[in-house]
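Blackboard transcription, Thursday session:
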Amino acid sequence: MKKLQGIYEHAAQMTAKGKVATYIPALATANPDAFAVSLVSMEDKIDFGECTQLFTLQSVVKVFSFMVAMNHHGIEEILRYVDVEPTGDSFDSIVRLESHNNKPFNPMINAGAITVASLLPGETMYEKVKSVTLFLEQIIGKKVHIDNEVYLSEYHAADYNRAIAYILQANGFLKSNVEEALQVYLQLCSISVNVEDLAKMALYFATNGEKSTATCSKEVIHIAKALMFTCGMYNASGKFAAFIGLPAKSGVSGAIIAVVKNGAIEHLQGPIGIGIYGPAIDQVGNSVAGIAFLTQLSKEFDLFCL
Amino acid sequence: MKKLQGIYEHAAQMTAKGKVATYIPALATANPDAFAVSLVSMEDKIDFGECTQLFTLQSVVKVFSFMVAMNHHGIEEILRYVDVEPTGDSFDSIVRLESHNNKPFNPMINAGAITVASLLPGETMYEKVKSVTLFLEQIIGKKVHIDNEVYLSEYHAADYNRAIAYILQANGFLKSNVEEALQVYLQLCSISVNVEDLAKMALYFATNGEKSTATCSKEVIHIAKALMFTCGMYNASGKFAAFIGLPAKSGVSGAIIAVVKNGAIEHLQGPIGIGIYGPAIDQVGNSVAGIAFLTQLSKEFDLFCL
Amino acid sequence: MKKLQGIYEHAAQMTAKGKVATYIPALATANPDAFAVSLVSMEDKIDFGECTQLFTLQSVVKVFSFMVAMNHHGIEEILRYVDVEPTGDSFDSIVRLESHNNKPFNPMINAGAITVASLLPGETMYEKVKSVTLFLEQIIGKKVHIDNEVYLSEYHAADYNRAIAYILQANGFLKSNVEEALQVYLQLCSISVNVEDLAKMALYFATNGEKSTATCSKEVIHIAKALMFTCGMYNASGKFAAFIGLPAKSGVSGAIIAVVKNGAIEHLQGPIGIGIYGPAIDQVGNSVAGIAFLTQLSKEFDLFCL
Amino acid sequence: MKKLQGIYEHAAQMTAKGKVATYIPALATANPDAFAVSLVSMEDKIDFGECTQLFTLQSVVKVFSFMVAMNHHGIEEILRYVDVEPTGDSFDSIVRLESHNNKPFNPMINAGAITVASLLPGETMYEKVKSVTLFLEQIIGKKVHIDNEVYLSEYHAADYNRAIAYILQANGFLKSNVEEALQVYLQLCSISVNVEDLAKMALYFATNGEKSTATCSKEVIHIAKALMFTCGMYNASGKFAAFIGLPAKSGVSGAIIAVVKNGAIEHLQGPIGIGIYGPAIDQVGNSVAGIAFLTQLSKEFDLFCL
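(Written on the board underneath:)
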């Protein structure tokens, strides 16, 4: 445990190099020094830091809502609404939506995630949100809640996302109305979890969902992992793939999930899920301490997966 | 062998759905019906089609010249000249080079590859080209030659690449002069191989180069594999990752290398390298039959690597 | 009169080369063969075609709402919200709004016009709209009405404009809320006039507003005429300037106003205002017959103004 | 003369707000405090500052080479190679050339001017350059020379223009080879004149060339003036049109020509040509003192031309 402890402690010192997200007031109140990590295998787990601290999923949820939509409509149908190609544009870019009346590049950017929100199963906003929280609850094994303060805060700073939604609607890539897609999307971003929950979410991918009650086809899990690998870490996805080499997804709350298909980290063996919370983020939106932790972890325990 | 044979035969019928690249005369003469596949493990190999047919590497070489430059200058120095992020722009795009005076997004697009060509070790063009052919010869275990007809044909259709090179020079991302970088780049694209050579090149990655005389640090091999996974298959890289899930690189000649870190395909076991030649390519530039073959192969033999 | 009659008749035959705007149902019902022209000097007027036919101003109103806003806030203040530079982008482009968080290029594109709508004097939507209709009524000398069918039709096809408005709001270039700016903008587009009204609106510029009860500073009239000359005719503004050479503004309803500062057209002398209605428009959005008419008119009566 | 003298002196104090162009060494040596103005009518002239100082035309020449090409090939043929639409992009932008394989937006941006250089009459570079210098010599009434130091300096900093030329060639918008078009273009930019020469060049437009031995069709002169009005002053063309309202063209050397079709400035009457040299330029590339002079001049003598 000494090696892992050392990696955690070294990474924890990096929080000072990042800044808490401030584009919505509710995120700005996070403790910039917070840094918690949870690693879980099928049999065991290791925790560092304050593991009961709740925070919101933000972009991490994009992977799961995409899976729920795919499970419901089938892969082919969803691909008519959103592609799975990485893009060098920033997560809230509109340019590509305009230039060719094209569908969103992938469900990890806001445009794609808003389209996916409109495709979720259910007649009402409540049902659509429920379809994702239910899926997450089956994965985590406990109830999850929406942080209403964060949701309202996001809702009041949603001009840009609303603009994206209207362009999607104009181009025929929204299956609900704008208001519904937007509120569902923002509610999903505001789902509240802790790092142990994140670790279980990551473990779900590591095991291809095989022992979970949360049913999902293997094809869909593969697509989700490929998306995490190629575009899960915002505009640093390529560097994350090159230097860490694990499927992972981050959110501006400082959350990260990272997937180890088959590894050995201290006494943990086999599929391992990693959950991280470090709200001090870098310029592209990733937890500074989280990236530092995963970089050294991957190197020390030889986790590069390709 | 029947299953693999069936996959090959089914894919071979797909050649009619693609077209031979015509932007340079020398590529346009390729036989559109040609389709050869080679699979090689450490102990054995399996071939389909005409495996002695020579063709040029085209963009496949970009991975190797990047590795040679990294080996020579070190990872950090090369990253000052070229990033490793995927981009949704087409391979010959100039837009990003202009808008922010930025370095090339990655070495798989032409801009990045021309920058890399300028960074190769050696005083002369000859030495720079030699540095890559030597590396390939150590990997393949035999001499390789440059197809001079293809080279001259490319050289006479190089307006766009030359424009890219001048912008790179203006922005300080070229270490040689334009003419040298361009000629080195185009000569490397014109290196001539057969599918068995490709398979060996792929196997090099599958084994992390461990038993090869071609020395390369593990870190550089990891970066190269990550680049192949995130942006090796032109603008279909995301779909390739999602539905096939292997590090791979394609060229407009119809060449593909695909890397199986640890698999079981018929009697082949462990690390497996796959080489493909199918000059009938789709709209983004990938061999139609090659993609069909790899799609079914990955599914039937469970090769998805994440 | 024979020469002018001939020019009108020749131009009238061009209507078949254009198409009525169809992006909103209410415009699509216009008679594609309609073509009316009105020329008015301080003393006299000449009409061709059905001059009592009502139609909506569409983009023609942009010049006038810009003038009302300038008159109210002063030139300097308005220039903080919208520039006066031509752009090669299409009238509904978003790209520039995103790429540099920049203010709209000019008030003739939708982004600029929506910003201007938010800057109109008045506390309520009604008052803002009224500020422009009042100005127009003083210029024309009669009441104008809003075509409610067209307004509602536009309102229900406003996704793209709404997206633009949200981006403007996000970037701080909207002085009212989105809904108000948008509704005011669309109501102004739906103001209903006939060609004689248009001719009087054009004459207002030709006389620099000197004898009108509609007060406006000469500086503001100059800016408005410069805008018409550099970007009044959508993406054909440059060709209109080069081959016709008059300040002019068009709308997708097929309306055009064109300003002759000092000319001699048949028995009309001095400042002349030209109003045109020809709903069959070309690809960039200008009345086909209108362009044909003005091209020959400018040549025959030597109206090129520079 | 007191009023004009005052305007000159006030403007002369503005030189400190600009900076001499430094992108090529030969321009960087200009005296930043220099400021000379020449006004010429058919009968008389007024000079301020050091009027014998030579400087290079830079972008001012673009108008004249365009006219020579139009005179030789006819308007229609030239418009197949270059459009006459203003664009909000900077003068050396490549983006539009790439995105739609489109022809250059207008001959005032570098792309359009390089295309025009390739279209000049003559078999050799020498003859092509000669075709423009000859035209200028007929307008000015004396020999002009090319400043070889400036030319060589520009030639060695031409990466970006060379890139543009290669893209033009790739897209079929170059009628000579790249090297010839580029050298002709850069030689034309390096033509050396003084402010009195500039004033005569401006007067040529003011009189529509009617009394000059430099023959040019009225249509071509109109197109040239329209281009100056809509896009002659780089990315401040719209503001120049709105607040000064004269056809004009500037160069980064600090040169400006401005055209008064019919005015009264002190004892000068009728068509007046204005030449300005003030090498301290603003961020978009226009002489700071020149803009200040023309702004006040236009206001005081009521020169706004629309």
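Lecturer's comment: The radius of gyration of chain C is 18 Å.
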